[in-house]
Amino acid sequence: MSAEVTVRIPEALRQFAGGSRELHVVASSVDELIAGVAAAGYGTLVNHICARDGQLRPFVNLYLGDVSIRTLDGQRTNLRAGDIVTILPSVAGG
Amino acid sequence: MSGREQRLAELREHVPQITPEEAYRLAQGNATLLDVREPEELAAGAPTGAVRLGRSFLELKVEDAIPGLHDPVLVLCASGIRSLFAAESLQRLGYQDVRSVAGGYEAWKRAGLPTEQPRILSTQERSRYARQLRIPEIGEQGQGKLLASRVLLVGAGALGSPAALYLAAAGVGTLGIVDADSVELSNLQRQILHTTERVGTPKVQSAWQTLNALNPSIQINKHELRLDSTNAEEVVRGYDLVIDGTDNFPARYLLNDVCLKLKLPYVYGAIYRFEGQVSVFWPAGAPAGAPTPCYRCLYPAPAPAELAPSCAEAGVLGVLPGVIGTLQAIEALKLILHIGDSLVGRLLCYDALTATFREFKTAADAQCPYCSKLDAFPGYVDYEAFCRDTQAA
């Protein structure tokens, strides 16, 4: 059953999320969450974190809580109401 | 019988004695070997791995060094006499299982058991490091480890500056500094190793001046070069760990790979405007059956330039690398001292604007071509080309 999930946006990607630190999306899986972000008008953000085949790009990690979805069920990982998904891209600066 | 002999006879009745061989065997388990000789006696060597706490401060400090009253304690002195007195004192303090090593260190040596040469601190060193010598987890033995340690800082910039300053101050005995650049005015907002009058000076020279002024007793190696596939292994070999103060992906992947090849801990840090990341990658240090990730497991490919610009392009709050670089220095000290829980298997993220630290688990990728088979290093690549090609993909 779909429920509202929070997506945390890192600073490097906020320009593609209307400057928001967080987005709130109704989704029951990570795939649905990605589709929901695109449907909310942030298709550019999705294009940056996902390749054309819809798979997460290798420089981006999505974390459900403190666990990478790569170690769960990937983009089919189920989400529940109140879950927090964090986008963590690699960072170059130092 | 003299009073001394009578007293010793009483002690021998109350304090169990064991041979050095038995003490060595027990110390491989959960027993603590406690060397109660005074610091000036240690120049002759000491049992490897023993906790050293001179008889004169024993009662005052032993509870910090050995907190568990039920833990077995094996007391050793020079010849097995003072250890009887020390053992009795420990019994009075409440230690339940205390034994004296018969014959002391002399017998230990005669038995051919392992010894080491402890670093004896000078009066000046005792004064300089007094505040950390008081910490039970560091003490003289820990300080000796720091003074004997060798840390390589790659990048004398925003992250490398605070890390280098604190490691030099803490007495890390050898610091290597890698940087090919010269100081620019725009560096000074965050690169606190350098000064206005040194604009135009090679950063390794400027770093040496600052660190030498802070702690002239340590060795600072200047590596004025840019690391690449051809020189990285030669530069890194001989250091105990590497701190990443670089500002680009090719350097980060190279550092990951050379640390994997040499089985060294790689202390990672990265920053973007108000946000930073810190972790430690050290697959070779993982216990059997519980692999830990390398940088490539977390990020198999670099972000494209438009999503991960350098600080020169995106800007950065000057204090942010102070936080992240200092965290890297703390991780380095913990690794050298073998204390605490390192950031291996964890990515710590700091958001300065919300004053929030968040922690994420990092997992080894069983298919990682670089760390899944540690003894089958696949070789260095052209890191500029690797990053350019994967970013474009």
Task: Give a quick set of tags describing it.
heterodimer, A: 94 residues, alpha+beta, 2 helices, B: 393 residues, eight-stranded mixed β-sheet, five-stranded parallel β-sheet, 16 helices
Secondary structure topology:
The complex is a heterodimer of chains A (94) and B (393).
Chain A: E1 3-8, E2 22-27, H1 30-39, H2 43-49, E3 60-64, E4 67-68, E5 84-89
Parallel strand pairs in A: 1-5
Antiparallel strand pairs in A: 1-2, 3-4, 3-5
Helix pairs in contact in A: 1-2
Chain B: H1 3-14, E1 17-18, H2 20-27, E2 32-35, E3 46-47, E4 51-52, H3 58-65, E5 73-76, H4 82-93, E6 98-101, H5 104-110, E7 115-116, H6 123-128, H7 130-133, H8 139-148, E8 150-154, H9 160-170, E9 174-178, H10 203-214, E10 219-223, H11 232-236, E11 241-244, H12 249-262, E12 266-272, E13 275-281, H13 295-298, H14 311-314, H15 320-337, E14 346-351, E15 356-361, H16 383-392
Parallel strand pairs in B: 1-6, 2-4, 2-5, 5-6, 8-9, 8-11, 9-10, 11-12
Antiparallel strand pairs in B: 3-7, 12-13, 13-14, 14-15
